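TICKET: design request
STATUS: open
ATTACHED STRUCTURE:
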């Protein structure tokens, strides 16, 4: 069940980081992207830093989703609800 909450947090974080990237770095502007993780504010100064964070988030989501696919079907519902 903890994996489900972690997966949900990661999916929300991915959404927040993408939104921050779009509003902050659109049009080649230099600025600071801001988003929160577990009610703590974080700032990233560069687009490259955001991309690296996003890559890690996507890898973690992929890992968690592949683990949930290995769980027998009757138990999978508990992980995905």
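STATUS: resolved
RESOLUTION: sequence designed for all positions
ATTACHED SEQUENCE:
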């Amino acid at each position: 069940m903890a994996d489900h909450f972690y997966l949900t947090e990661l999916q929300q974080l991915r959404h927040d980081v993408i939104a921050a990237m779009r509003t902050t770095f659109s049009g080649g502007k230099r600025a600071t992207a801001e988003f929160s993780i577990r009610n703590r504010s974080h700032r990233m100064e560069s687009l490259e830093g955001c991309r690296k964070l996003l890559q890690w988030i996507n890898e973690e989501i992929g890992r968690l989703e592949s683990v949930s696919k290995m769980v027998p079907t009757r138990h999978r519902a508990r992980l995905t609800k």
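CLOSING REMARK: The longest strand covers residues 33-37. Residues 2-80 form one domain.
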